[in-house]
């Protein structure tokens, strides 16, 4: 599967789903964030939806309205590279060994291999590649620092982490919502762009 280009029809369908999520987010006056209660078996699917909803809610405060559709596409597809990894790795019940972690980190670049045509915009692809980059340069795959990271990916980083830590996963229990908010707040200026954290806290009402 690595190196495979997803069919145009599938990419178009995925992009359209992201657009429907965006339309739903924009149709609501109030923003809401809630833990993913689906359980680990459905985690990847629910995580993609939840991160898209939260990321768009943050993005409404930071990017132009005409960019939100591209942001939504990137958020919804950010973990698509995990489809190229063994399920036993993606659903591993405990901490990963160093070699397993090295392979897991490849999902960002593997995701780009699925998206090599122009069905998905270049801006959306920055989310797929860089949502694990960190403001202080400690992330992956490129160790990008600060504003070297695309604004879309900085938004995705916050949405991804909050939705992850407040969800029940195969390898970790869910944190309560308030503790998840504290994780994001504590990462401001180190893991996360402070401006994105401020917008997240506005969404969270904290």
How would you describe what is shown here?
By secondary structure, the chain is an all-alpha fold. The chain has one domain (8-204): Hypothetical protein af1432. It has 10 helices and no strands. The protein has helices at 8-27, 43-59, 68-77, 87-90, 98-104, 107-114, 122-130, 151-165, 177-186, 194-204. The radius of gyration is 16 Å and the shape is globular. The termini are far apart.
Total of helices: 10
Order of helices and strands: HHHHHHHHHH
Averaged pLDDT, please? 88
CATH class: Mainly Alpha
Based on Cα principal axes, name the global outline: globular
Give the tally of structural domains. 1
Question: What is the gist of this entry?
Answer:
The chain has 206 residues and is mainly alpha-helical. 54% of the residues lie in helices and 0% in strands. It has one domain (8-204): Orthogonal Bundle (Hypothetical protein af1432), CATH 1.10.3210.
What layout of secondary structure does this protein have?
Elements: H1 8-27, H2 43-59, H3 68-77, H4 87-90, H5 98-104, H6 107-114, H7 122-130, H8 151-165, H9 177-186, H10 194-204
Helix pairs in contact: 1-2, 1-3, 2-3, 2-8, 2-10, 3-7, 6-7, 7-8, 8-9
Kindly list the characteristics that best describe this protein.
206 residues, mainly alpha, Hypothetical protein af1432, 10 helices, 0% strand
